[in-house]
Write a structure and sequence with these properties.
The chain has 417 residues and is of the alpha+beta class. The chain contains 13 helices and 13 strands. Helix 2 runs antiparallel to helix 12. The two termini are 30 Å apart.
Length: 417
């Protein structure tokens, strides 16, 4: 056994350049596969994190301006949504649940002692967290009593609390802040997946409606859907909804500018399709990179066997069995692919860990907010090991077939070569 190992070592040592080229092809294939998969996972994990807390089966409706004439009415009319449309939405019980309205008021100065911040305040109903994936960090959200009594309570973003209260942020619940001359009690603190530059503050819908004299107009409608499981069903529902609203507000159902619809479910399915395409593309590129390593190993093993055909003839003439010669070639192939495959795997894992440390929570400025676009760009260890084993097996086969052909040649023919 020791002689066998020494012979393999001697063969590799005598052919340093050939061994290095073979090893580089193996290591590079594994390395690139792991790095590509890691980078792809970083992008996909960021997408899943951003959408993880959102209600993907939700719709949000904004008023718009007509772009088509309708039954004698000219285009260019402003469409106003009111609480009547909210009730109409709630009556679509077959597919609609958690319907509510939203009001907004911009340019509000929030202040606490000497600190202040300009932001937007939004009047919402108690079911808002369910429809928009809002996550509380402390305290509570708006409730029915707040709505009924039109209480002056407010829910702030954690960033707003930090800007206003600084060292007192841990004791923010229960304190009062000033909003353009009106005092509100802080009852809750929320957080969001995206770090907003100017996050909104939430009031009870009825409170904002009263203070800012909004009447029965609503800024937007939001609701969840049920029993809709695919893209065609979601698009069909959206068409039916547009048709129902168009009859009440008197505009053409095909006029997509009259109301603006954010169909999150359709958007989510499209993003999932894009994610699947990205995942497949990464695997295809990675596999072809791995194949390039396999081809490199195969070519070099073919050259190796051809160069050693004369040596094989001498061995057979001296009584060496074909199986022993075959075992020698295969062992050499396995040794090279295993050693350099391991190096490639370790290097690939090290790079993905470095990417995770440097850019694992990479945030990108998207205008009104900043979003995490790169999360945990690493590869499951099992996948890395499986890829390495695949290349080792491929390297073994790459050495087996040419070696088998060589040892089948009669000694006299091999010696002539």
């Amino acid at each position: 056994m020791i002689d066998f190992i020494q012979e393999i070592y001697g063969t590799i040592k005598r052919n340093k350049l050939r061994t290095a080229l073979t090893g580089f092809a193996v290591a590079w294939g594994i390395f690139m596969l792991i790095v590509l998969l890691g980078a792809g996972n970083g992008l996909l994990n960021a997408f899943e994190q951003q959408s993880g807390d959102m209600a993907m089966n939700s719709f949000q409706i904004w008023p718009g301006r007509t772009s088509m004439p309708y039954q004698g009415l000219k285009e260019g009319r402003n469409i106003k949504l009111t609480e009547k449309e909210l009730e109409l939405t709630r009556q679509m019980t077959e597919h609609v649940t958690h319907a509510s309205a939203i009001l907004e008021q911009g340019g509000v100065i929030l202040s606490y002692r000497q600190d202040h911040v300009s932001t937007q305040i939004t009047g919402v109903m108690p079911n808002y967290p369910e429809t928009n994936g809002l996550k509380l960090k402390a305290g509570r959200f708006i409730n029915q009593l707040d709505m009924k009594d039109k209480r002056k309570v407010i829910v702030l973003h954690e960033k707003t609390v930090e800007m206003l209260m600084g060292d007192e942020k841990e004791k923010a619940i229960g304190k009062h802040i000033n909003a353009s001359g009106i005092a509100y009690q802080v009852v809750g603190i929320y957080t969001t997946p995206m770090e907003e530059f100017s996050p909104t503050a939430y009031l009870p819908y009825t409170t904002l409606q009263l203070i800012y004299n909004k009447g029965d107009g609503v800024g937007s409608l939001v609701f969840l859907t049920k029993d809709i499981t695919d893209l065609p069903g979601s698009e069909t529902f959206e068409k039916e909804y547009r048709s129902a609203i168009s009859k009440v507000k008197q505009f053409d159902a095909e006029d997509r500018s009259a109301i603006w619809v954010w169909n999150r479910f359709s958007q989510y399915l499209q993003q999932q399709t894009a994610s699947d395409i990205l995942r497949t593309a990464i695997w295809v590129i990675g596999i072809f990179t791995l194949l390039s390593g396999i081809v490199g190993v195969s070519n070099i093993m073919l050259i190796t066997v051809k160069e050693r055909t004369h040596e094989f003839g001498i061995r057979k003439a001296l009584g060496a069995k074909p199986a022993s010669i075959l075992a020698l070639i295969i062992a050499e192939s396995i040794t090279i692919t295993t050693f350099f495959g391991y190096i490639g795997m370790i290097a690939g894992i090290a790079v993905t860990e470095y990417m995770n440390a440097v850019a694992g929570e990479q945030v990108m400025d998207i205008g009104v907010a900043s979003a995490t676009v790169f999360v945990n760009p690493t590869v499951d260890l099992h996948i890395a090991i499986q890829a390495t084993l695949t290349l080792i097996i491929a390297g073994t086969l790459a050495g087996f077939f040419p070696a088998r052909k060589a040892v089948m040649i009669r000694p006299i023919e091999a010696l002539k070569g």
